[in-house]
## 1
Amino acid sequence: MTKIVKMSEKNEHGTLEQFYPETHAEAVKGLVSVTEEEKTTWNEKETTAGAEQKANTALNSAKEYVDTIGKGTVIFKGANIMGAGQKYTWSSSKLKFGITLLFSRYDSANNTPLDYYYHSVFLSKAQLAELAGKGLLVPMPSAIYGERKYLYVSETEVAGHNDNTNNASWALRQLTVM
């Protein structure tokens, strides 16, 4: 076997260049030979256009995800005083951050939701996990009347309580899972 030696010399510009002596030229060529199979495999590697397309797809998917999570999923929209037996459920896969409960005043004498004096409550995913089926007292902002809603909450459900029929001047207007 021939020992391959690399040599160097200065060119006319004074720069040092490396070279292989002529006697070793065939041995050096043999070191860099590539089979047809290796060429085919290399040619099947990712192209710049293919890589760019994958990167753009990933970027658009990330943008869509960010746009979607901020909107949340509306589970309920209407007016419900959340008495005993009234509940809303959702898949745990929808819960990323928490839930928002939106309440407003309610005219119980006429069974009519009132479109003013809205009150929003956010419960984080961690709080829902901690409470998991326990009762939650949600005071309504009208301190004069001491009104409140009592709800059972978890990561997949909000359920009402009979006490809420006595506090019927407020209704749940929207439940959003985020």
## 2
Amino acid sequence: MATTFHLFPFLPWELRACIWELTVEPRTVDVHAKRYYLETNKNLETAPSSQQAYARLVSTTPVPATLQTCRESRNLGLYQKGLSEVEVVPEGGERRYVWLNFDIDTIDYGRDNLYNYRWAAQPVKRLKYRSRKFHYCDVRSFNFFENLIEAHIDCFNEEGLDEWYHIFGPFVLTCDRRNIHLIQSENNRTTTAQELEEEIQRREEEDLAEFANLDPVPVSEMFAGLDIDSLMPTILHVADIMTARNTEGNN
């Protein structure tokens, strides 16, 4: 079976361009900002703080085959040089980049802190990253990606899922919550941020309704078994403190 189409160069330019465009498929592109010190070549966490820190962009994802085929396919602009803003290089050094199609490619930051990619966040439309712990500063880092239309966040398990909700839930996010996919990789489950929010709100409403339907407990039963006489000195002491504070406030 023939695998080479020798007449391709003789096709009309418009048709060849359409064929090249069909070779572009969505990818997940892994990236990592490797931080180091030039003088000692040590990791950022172990090198002396007085040295200048640098960062190099690393990716194990191969360059798209379309860009390696010929000059014609490369000149169509199907991919762009991206994420070079992450690089911090010595004076005179050349910044590296990753070939990306920002419309369809998902950029996988692994366990890197999204804050390290803030300068290269604008064109990114799809991202993925992993974290077991979330902090309020993560919301700001996430919102640096102002043009984000889809996110995949691996929370590892239900505990991480709940933590993500309590950290991110109160804030307005740049990405539609229906398109934020929260992954529990330990049990191979996925839910959207909106579905998680609806589920937690439903559980809270059920708990509230269950509490509201409880029979009221008489005051006598609430204090049953308590030794009021032994507690009375403490109660009087607290009352004296509150009275003194109110008197000072009025003066």
## 3
Amino acid sequence: MNKKFVVTATVLCCVVAGAIGTSAIAKIDPFAKSARMMELESEYDAKVSQFNAMPNQTKEEQDAVVAEGKRIKQLDIEKEKLRRETDPDDEAHFLNDLTSSIHAMGTGVVELKARAEREQNSEFLKQAEKIKKDIERFEKEKQAYLDEKKTVKELRKELDIPANDLK
């Protein structure tokens, strides 16, 4: 029994030391952050597939599933923090978020027009027209981004959108 404990403790220490070492190197070298990011993504994917295959019939199995779920959540949080460090402009998700925001603004225009008709209030129509102008400006800037005339940073500045605050 003691030998199992010693072996388990040794393996655990090696894993923790490796993770700490990789994290320390990632803070110094920006390329190491990218490598650490890919490492975390593969580890996360492996743990999720392993988690999905876990049995959960007995109370002990259910407790193990819950504990593993918490570990996976922490790993996902760590992965997301590192992603934000390596890509502060969130270029990977920017276009999707911008498109979603434009569609949401379009829905707002439709709702304002319907409300203007229902309540016979021209203020709602004025607001809808203002939002339509904003949508046209956003679409124009989005196209400039797609044509690679502008970067995410320039586009955020032009549209007055703070980083990580599109919605």
## 4
Amino acid sequence: MPDTIEAEVLEIDGKQPPPPQREPEPTRRDDPWQAMRGRVIKLDRRWWPLWVLLGIVALAIALTVGVVVAAVVIVFKIIGGVLRFLLGTGGGGSQGMGGGGTSLSRRG
């Protein structure tokens, strides 16, 4: 792209050139995101109830997911314990994830 050369025109064909026109600054911005460009975005204080409500909903969802995962883990541990008891592979109770549990056998 060639470089643009700017020069002041004194006269064209013996006539004075028209005065330079300034580009009017737009009073209304077409794009609201363009208006936000380069500014620090602050949350409007009127919206705080919405953010509190969304935070409570997000916390409730996280707690619900945690309770469901914990329930599934407990059910799998119970099923695993029942299967170990029925199959007789329980061992001395020191194996597995639970650590030192109680043995169900009455051997002394």
